[in-house]
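INTERNAL AUDIT FORM
Audit reference: QA-55
Scope: verify that the stored structure record matches its stored sequence.
Auditor: D.O.
Record contents follow.
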Amino acid sequence: MNEKITIRPATTNDVDEIFEINSQTWLDTYASEKYNIWEKDISNWGDEIKRNNAMKNRAEEISKNPWAYHVAIFEWKIIGYAWGKKHEQYNELFAIYILSRFQGKWVWTMLIPKVFEYLWNEKPIIVNVIWYNQKAIKFYEKIWFNFHKK
């Protein structure tokens, strides 16, 4: 499948699809019956004005620095994205979200190196993961991140 997937920097035209990926993947990532975090808590974007403002902010971020965002494309549709942020003392892999049907298909091996190219400048690269998401923690440990509890 990898030969059919392409990676490119995001554009402001990608914001709608990026938000759609969020709405699909956040349920798997954050919902937890054990910790009383329900689907309605995650899927409730609030009012349309809040959502539009969030999308406008994301589009502005992408237009200022498209190399911070990379998208994975399969059959002309975005199936995942990764986003890096630079900070003064460290850099951060801020997000990587891939649609569930493409997880485990090595899409991350194409996305993360592109974001790391942007982030790499002799500073440590960190990632923050919600503490109860063991699937994500195992994934990040597989790609050489170490975890420390705050």
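Auditor finding: record pair retrieved intact. The radius of gyration is 15 Å.
Action required: none
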